[in-house]
Each structure stands twice: as structure tokens, then as C-alpha cells.
Amino acid sequence: MTDNLTIIPPRSGVSFLLKKGQRLKVVDIEGEQVSDFVCYNLDDKAEYLSSGRTIDYAETILLTKGHPFYSNRSNVMFDLVEDTVGRHDFLLTPCSADTFRIIYGHTQPHRGCFGNLCAALEQYGIGPDAIPISFNIFMHVTVDGDTGRVAVLPPKSKAGDYVILEAKMDLLVGLTACSAEMSNNYAFKPIGYQILDAK
Fold first, then answer.
1. pLDDT tens digit string along 57-68?
2. What range(s) does the DUF1989 domain occupy (predicted)?
């Protein structure tokens, strides 16, 4: 199942380029593992993936196959073209050392997906303040319609589940194997990915 996949080890992150027309396959290798995804316009990194605009234009927080994902300038950055799970999150920010300090009470917190994304994207000139809300692939978040309370539940993804994103512009991508306990049902596992050339 992991043939041709690049493996992101547990609690780490990577960055890479995805050219217009290429497809990115993100695979949950063992099941119940979230992957935080961010991207930027390769030609102008001040243009980045926007949770607010994407949710606004889709009129739903449950984004899945067939939905376009928009930048802060309302341009389509990629389409979600295949999805074997159908449940992901685009509300919550990447976990960070502050997440672990504030929510979990850790006194020596892990740097989290935020820190991993910062480290992976630094070589491209992306600083911490330029990391947006991530598209949290496989993350299962519910919102109570009456109280607005947010709950993080175990992912619905099983071993081998995947999504495929098709780039609509040249992209700089940051991708992680998420570091937060609640997000991954209290076990940290790898994420696999593969870049598929344009058809």
C-alpha cells in the first residue's frame, strides 16, 4: 500500500512544489491520522489558502469531493477530486506548542503542526505569521448547532483511505502528520503522499 508513497514520519512535516495540473494524493497509512495541509501561490506567496473564503463560497463546513478551495484573493487554488472519507476539518488552526500548553497543560510542549510547518516552509521565505488555518485532512470536528461548541472526535479514516487534490495554479505546499493527541485518537502515525503528473 505504501509503494510509490513518500512517508511523513509521525509528528513531523514537509514542504514541496505542486505544479498546475498535477494531483496530490494524501494517504492515511494506518488509519485515524490527521494531515494538516497549507498552500501558497508559488509565484506570489502573499496569496494563500483561505478557510473563510472557501467555506463562504461552498456554503458548508463539510468540504469533500467536488469542492474548489479558494485563496485569500478568491482564486481557486485546487479542487478536491477524490475523497474516500468525506469528513475533514477547515475550522481549526494547526496545533502548536501553545495548543499543548493551553489545552493539554504540557510544560514542555511539542512544537506541533504549526512549528513543523514553519520549519518546512522557512526555506521558501514563509514566516510564522504567514501560516494560515490549515485544511485538516481526515480530521473529525463537530459543531453543536445550538451552543456552537466544537468537539474533536477520532478521525473516520481507515488504513488506506485517501484524498486527491488537483492544483489549479503552481503551488508551494506544506503537509504534516499531525501532532495533537485528540485529533488522532491518541496515537501518532505516519502520513503518505504522492504527486501524480497531469493527465
1. 999 999 999 999
2. 7-172
